[in-house]
Amino acid sequence: MAINVMCTLYVVSVTVSSIWMDLSRNQAVLMWFACLFLCSLFFEDKVPVLRYVQIAFLALFHWNSQLNWCQPLYMFLAFKECYRIQHLTRSIALAFFIVSIYSLIRISYVPDTLYNVLVTFFDVVNVLVIVFAVHYVVKVEQEKRSLFREKKHLSTHDPLTGLLNYQEYHRQLATLLKKGERFVLLIIDCIDLKSMNDQQGYQGGNRILIKMANYLRTFFSEAYIMAHYGGDEFAVVISVKDRRNPVDELTRLLVHQLPRELKIGVTYGYAVYPEDGETKDALISAAEQKLFNMKREMWLKKEEQELRAEKLRVVGELAAGLAHEIRNPLTTLRGFLQLSKKNNFDISPYYELMMQETERVSELTAEFLQFSKKNAAEFKVQALQDCIQRVVHLLESEATYLGHELHCTLVPTPVLVLIDKDKMVQLFINLVRNAFDAMVQPGTVTIRLRRDGEHGVIEVCDTGSGIPEERLNDIFNPFYTTKETGTGLGLSICYQIVHHHNGAIEVESKVGEGSTFTVKLPLAQNEQRPQAQSS
Q1: What is the pLDDT of residue 132?
Q2: Sequence-ordered list of residues with C-beta below 8 angstroms from that of 523, at least 6 positions apart, any chain
Q3: What's the start-to-end Cα distance of the chain, in Å?
Q4: Which DSSP string do the residues of 112-124 spell out, in sequence order?
Q5: Which pTM does this prediction carry?
Q6: Number of alpha carbons in the 13 Å side-chain half-sphere of residue 511
Q7: What is the pLDDT of residue 483?
Q8: Residues sharing a CB contact under 8 Å with residue 87, sequence separation 6 or more, in sequence order
Q9: Environment class of residue 273 by beta-carbon count within 10 Å: exposed (0-12), middle (13-18) or buried (19+)?
Q10: How confident is the model over 416-425, as a mean pLDDT?
Q11: Do residues 109 and 65 make contact, with C-beta atoms less than 8 angstroms apart?
Q12: Residue 67 CB neighbour total at 10 angstroms
């Protein structure tokens, strides 16, 4: 508008000067074309066709004024069209056309001299140079604007997904709260994206994030705010015009449709303004709390499924082991019976062997039931010295019969622990008998009891053949045994008993020197002792 006003003043000045110096061919026609030219400048935005007749109005005004002072008006039209076109070749052609019209009209009323010819030539050169200068300035300005827009975009958007970043998300959310409109804040977290990064590399994870951003753009195209503010979390703010509950629609999109299309699960939390909070922090906190609750439920469900699968696997291993162990003695018995039936043999010489195999099946079944059945335990505060002395009393005669020595070293003060005494005696009997079996030649079994901080420590040491290092990790597994007549459940039962008492059992062994089994049990707390003593 300011440029048009300046052009108006300049046209008026040229008109007045031409009339005053009596150069005008026709004063009325001069003023008429001056008005037409000015009207085309002021109304070209509303009537675009005026852009194409401006040069004609200016040429007729120039021809009637007979003044070279019209040259700036031609320059103005040339610069304006060059800026609008922004194409160098077209701009040069248009500028050459405009300056040619000016030069032709100028030659019509000036003397035909060498000076005027040279002036016409330099007018053309001058316009072309200015066109190049205008294009250079325009190009630099466009690059500056482009860099400014890019800088602004990078400062407010995530470079990977193109969504808003963390800072801009908070700023726009605070701005939206000032409007007071009802909306839903949705926070979305991709599941197992870190494990996907480990498997496919970060490029695979980035592809998922980009797909996720495109998915959100598609299904929440009218969202107020859409942001990826780090990691695998996204935030979306959508409008809720009525009082309806948006949970059903969100569940359909995020729980059912999205995993089917992107092959990745998500957890989400949401908060409705103003029902769940009236401030930015309150809304974010409410949405993140629901997100945490959903993550926790999924984690618990996953843990439950893994625990169920582990139980089924253990049951399968136990069943397979039990079937294998029972099959051997049953095969022996079946062979004797089939042989006697076929040949009418007297099987009385094999009674003892058959009874041993039958007892072996019975013993294996009993130990398996003991291993698998959760018997009700009676926990009381007991002194470990009493349990160990009872074990020594029960096994002294057996040790003497086998040619072994059984020693025990106990601390003088009672080591009180909360235990089931019968289970604990069974534990130590199993460990001592295993020590007897490990000593082919007469040896020594030593039971030591000591305190170690808040634990009572029992060590059962033997001087047997020892256990190879590669077998130490398997000795507590069900049905693992190196004995010809063993069931492989003894140490598994020991491990189970210690586990039920919140203790730990470890083993150290050297081939040819012997083994040491160490059991650690937590000492009874002070508040447990009076209660146990009174009961």
Answers
A1: 77
A2: 415, 416, 417, 451, 454, 455, 456
A3: 102
A4: --HHHHHHHHHHH
A5: 0.45
A6: 5
A7: 59
A8: none
A9: buried
A10: 84
A11: no
A12: 18
